Amino acid sequence: MCTPARYNVGLAPPSDGDLDVLNCTELPPDIRSEERCRHLSFEYELTTSVICGLSLVFGILYTLFGRFSEGPLQALDQLARVTQTIFDGFESKKPQRAILVLLDYARAYDRVWRDALYAKMRRLGVPGCATRWIRALLSDRRARVRWGTSASRWRVFQEGLPQGSVLAPLLWLIYCNDIDDRLRAGDSSPTVSLFADDVALLATGRSLQECADRLQPALDEVSRWVKTWKVQPSPSKCVMTTFTLDPKECGGKVKPQLSFCDHPLGYEETPTFLGLKLDCQLTFAAHIAALREKMAKRRACISAIAGRSYGSHRSTLRIAYKSYVRSLFDYGAVIYFTHAAPAVRERLEVEQRKCARLITGCIKLTDKETLVAEAGLPPLSLRAKELAAGKDITLHWVPGHADLAGNEAADRLANQAAADCAQEEAPIDLSSARTAIRRWTSELASARAQRHPHREPTPSHDELDRWGQATLSQLRTGYCPLVRATAHRLGLVEDPTCRACGEEEEDVEHLLAGCPAHVAARAGFWGHCPTLAEVLSGPAQHIIEFMKRVGRVQVATDSPPPAAP
């Protein structure tokens, strides 16, 4: 195989498009689809990846995105632009309304008109060798139907793009590049968002009817485009949604009439745009409710491999949670989680705390901030801010002017001024004061959300077995069912008083650092009078060994009364 040579002369990989369509009754229900039966050769996948890279070099994507996406926008960028436009209308002096239209095509990749695609590639300035290569690549795609041991003759695909190929989305972008030639003409044109085969049209105005009047001409232009270029719309999936703060209009109480391709557009109260479920007032309550259900289902998988006396390592559970459960939250969090009400956001925080209990082995009595901090997880509110920031910046000081007389004198005078001149009573302007207050309150909220009675980790915590890890986490957070005070709150014992000394309530601090009955067992590890902080900052193995020596390996319970004779 010589991929560059094939590319230059326009030769596609051999047998790259053969497809066997099997008898669906022979397949499991979850894979009865044409896409699951498609087989692409290794050479085909490699060469399509190469052509995508070459296309990037030739600047095709830059040309496309520069025209209809205002830069190489990702899905979140498109979502942010649409939602921010709606929020801007809500926050204007006279709150505006908005209508969002979502258009969908039926089997968009399979209906691409190839001759038109090649013409558009030439018009965009795609190199001739790339056009010839793609023509050769698509010309030999064929399929047949196999039923048992019998098979039909091969049928060649005259139109369409290969499903599952990395090249298909790029070719579709080329094909639909001119869809907005007329949509952006004029000041009253709606906001257009195009991402792959998802099309969204958004119009804002003082009334819903004004929004509809701006949208209908754009819909007519798209209708003419799909008819011209033989793209089949999916009328049942083309919907509209209204956004308004007026209780007399929200929830579909007022539905302007819009049509697309001679079909009236249906109204969807909570449409899904690029994976984000929207509602009429952008509260994102519906999206968070659906997201909570998904997170709960995935949490069950983590629960199956996590127990307080068995299961996977807590670092493994933490990685599983971040990659399998929290990844659902991460997508779009910078949009929906920063705008949702605190009560709505708390529903997802509850799901994270349930996963944190699985990771650490802690019980429900544990303080919620302490629980999340013990699991090594930031609160979801802080996680959303981290995602919004986008990048981490680390500053390093480079002593480039060291040992220079003038620079040393300037540094000395600056340090002297900072040390000798009192700044407490120096006046500041109102804007600076507000900025300082916002920064202070933000730092205070972040610190409060991650508070922990023993912030520093216990050395060798991760080297314990699952029971030891869970027990130590319970002791560190202050609620351990092996201690009588916690067992009393759980209703397992009637008296929380320490049975060893009988002097005071047996909490974690009393057991580990204060009970006089365990002085000898304690002295071998931490001396005669250690503090709780000193105990928890020592080796984790010492704490677990101490718990075993004093007989605290099972949940504290009162002895059952003797059986009746």
TrEMBL record:
Gene3D superfamilies: Ribonuclease H-like superfamily/Ribonuclease H. Residues 1-278 form the Reverse transcriptase domain. GO terms for molecular function: nucleic acid binding; RNA-directed DNA polymerase activity; RNA-DNA hybrid ribonuclease activity. Keywords: Membrane, Nucleotidyltransferase, RNA-directed DNA polymerase, Transferase, Transmembrane, Transmembrane helix. This is Putative RNA-directed DNA polymerase from transposon BS. The lineage of its organism: Eukaryota, Metazoa, Ecdysozoa, Arthropoda, Crustacea. It comes from Amphibalanus amphitrite. The chain crosses the membrane at residues 46-65. The gene is RTase_40.
